[in-house]
Amino acid sequence: MKRCLTVLAALAACLFLSPAARAETVRDAHGRSVEVTDTSRIVSIGGSVTEILHALSRSDSIVGRDSTSLYPPAALSAPDVGYMRALSAEGVLSLSPTLILSVDGAGPPDVIALLEGAGIPFVNIPDVPTAEGVAAKIKAVAQAVGEMERGAELAEAVRADFQALEQALAGVETRPRAAFVLSMSGGAPLVAGAGSSADSALALAGATNVFAGLKGFRPATPEAVLAAAPQVIVSMRSAAHDPASLAQSPVFAQTPAGREGRIVAMDGGYLLGFGPRAPQAMRELAQALHPGLALPSLPDRPWAAGTDG
Question: Which residue of 15, 76, 258, 300 is most buried, as measured by CB atoms within 10 A?
């Protein structure tokens, strides 16, 4: 009888194993098969990854986050391991994580290689700046932490919000010619070209990227800016530079956007992070780009509380 009770207790332990201790083999964005056995101590690298974890109600498992993880405000309570592209292996490993979730593109590459080989499950999360890319990102995080059902529901809700925005913009005949300026260095703007997250954001918000002939983020000459003749300049709000000053800068002052003072400034992580709040960010950008258009509001979503979408 005693042995029988022991066996039953062991079976019960297996049946009621917490999500933090369930084994799961996932294939990450680099094609690596990663076995995840314990999700009780997660270091989250990438603001969108952190937002997804909070949306999946797994915030209690986060023991560290990178400096781009600023939303929701509760995320700030976790220790900061540094900027996602300038990580140190020691800083991440000092938190004794049982799982590291990192958005694809984090670095430096040698540090990522060290972390991948440190004996702790390290999952690279895909980061494709499209509506379907966001859904795939959500599902990848959800699978890694054993929350597939919640992940599927979240992905479907985000997909529905993207579709609602697409339908609202379907009848728009005029798409403003927009330039996304990441930064200004020595008077030369760093602008977004094809394949960048900003290029996707402009398209989803119903604008035409005047620098689509470039690839990624590239510096633009004054001559190229004048020839592109943007009607709107989109940039990021930050303490580092004043987006409003772009209209008065010599390189943009003679463009239609500069002459009319049409500058749209948004939080960079919100606009370019492509996390679960991406539809709300794109709607906010779309409304700024099409001020005469009465866009319908998106449904209230708990993971997007405090946003304007």
Answer: 258
> What is the distance between the terminal CA atoms of the chain, rounded to a whole angstrom?
62
SS3 165: helix
Closest CA to 118 of 141, 105, 100, 102: 100
CB 298 within 8 A of CB 308: no
Beta bridge partners of 292: none
How far from 142 is each of 54, 55, 222, 281, CA to CA, in Å?
11, 10, 45, 22
pLDDT in tens, 187-205: 789 999 999 999 999 999 9
CATH class of 18-163: alpha beta
Which of 40, 14, 74 minimizes the C-alpha distance to 145?
40
Task: Tell me which CATH code domain 177-274 carries.
Answer: 3.40.50.1980
pTM (two decimals): 0.91
What's the CA gap between 91 and 307, in Å, rounded? 32
